[in-house]
Amino acid sequence: MTIRILHTADLHLGSSLKNFGELARERRRDFLKTFDRIVNLAIKREVDCLLVAGDLFDATQVDAETVGRVQDGFERLSGRGISVVLIPGTHDNVVSAESVYNRTTFAGAHILKDPVVTDPFALEIRGATVHFYGFAYRSDRSREALESMRRREGGGIHVGLLHGSLKGSPEWEMRKKDIPFTTAELAALGLDYIALGHYHNVGCLEDQGRVVACYPGSPEGKKFGENGERHVLIVEVGEGSAVVEKVPVQSRIMDELTVDASLFPEAGALEGELARLASPDLIARIRLAGTVEDPLDIANLAGRLQGTYAWLELLDETEIYNSDHVKRMEREDSIRGLFIRKVHARFEKAESEAEQELCRDALKLVMGRFMRGGGD
Fold first, then answer.
1. What percent of the chain stands above pLDDT 90?
2. Sign for the pseudo-dihedral over CA of 355, 357, 361, 364
3. What is the pTM of this model?
């Protein structure tokens, strides 16, 4: 027999999302909409249970509206006979007595808050016993917590929930609370499937051709790097097997692009290309590269594109140092020509790449003022 679970993690509901500027408030609503979409998907796909592998919330204390949306979602699932099993993460930990999980009731949800697994939590699902292994990390009490997830005796299906870090990942330097592990260590626990959380990009860990554990990634991009489609996982779990399906659920796409501005020298051509790439639901960071004849007015360009993207960050990485225009102006008998000659001389004497980069930046900045000021 198999059971069908919907596995998610790292929703970070209630985050301030200040990095999105004026879009922050709407972005917070996006996160709540995506949570609702996950609940609806669980109902539509008739899963047996929803697993949340940590960081459902972005902090230990959460605003009342966000709590209410989650309570409503869990109650809707419970009304359809869908169990919810979750563990706290690093952001929404239970260390403080003020933690949302210590102060609030979530009807229909089974929250695994103990610092180690004493006995797995068991549910009867369609005539089979399903054992859930999970813990809430406490630095003073969870030294043997990972080992406590080792499979107990008995039949049925055995599923783990773990908010932790795969050793060797380049994403960050690990701390104890990140609960580092290897794929082999997870496989040795003997569980049928382990629902992971903590890393924000999707990925599955396999051992001897079998899926041992998966990260679903964050279902909505919280920052650049969490680009493209964001997913939850629908997993068919049996004794010794797990078949995984990725399902996109995001409200908006985040993306990072590079545009060679030198390919659009005519007036308005670069703006036209950026408008062509735009979408009202796209959150974009666009790097403008290449050698251009005149410094770009990024603020003006961003203003002209207002409303074509959900949110747009333009980064000017263009180069004018070796442009034909600058070479012509260098020969002028003017303040502008004198300035360019002095910058070029300083560049030639530079003792480091950082000093050369400073010369390039100074030339771009001052030349931009010359162009917009209309004189020398």
1. 74
2. positive
3. 0.86
Quick one: pLDDT at residue 327? 66
Q: What is the DSSP string of 302-347?
A: HHHTTTTSSEEEEEE--B-TT-HHHHHHHTSSSHHHHHHHHHHHHH
In the chain, helix, strand, coil percent, each to 5?
30, 25, 40
Tokens of 193: 């499937």
The sign of the CA dihedral 189, 194, 200, 204 is: positive
| Residue 312: C-alpha distances to residues 171, 279, 292 (Å) | 25, 10, 21
Span of 11-15, 129-133, 326-330 with lowest mean pLDDT: 326-330
Domains of the chain with bracketed CATH: 2-248 (3.60.21.10), 253-373 (no CATH)
Yes or no: say if 46 and 4 are a contact pair by the CB < 8 Å rule: yes
How many C-beta atoms surround the C-beta of residue 192 within 10 A?
24
By the 8 A CB rule, do 318 and 288 touch?
yes
Asked if residue 117 lies in contact with residue 149, where contact means CB atoms within 8 angstroms, the answer is yes
pLDDT, tens only, 132-185: 999 999 988 888 999 999 999 989 999 999 999 998 766 556 677 789 999 999
Percent of all residues in the chain with a pLDDT value above 70, rounded to a whole number:
91
Residues 267-283, buried b or exposed e (16+ Cβ, 10 A)? eeebeebbeebbeeebb
Q: Given pLDDT bands bounded at 50, 70 and 90, which one contains residue 376?
A: very low
Task: Locate all alpha helices (DSSP H) within 170-239, ordered by sequence.
Answer: 183-188
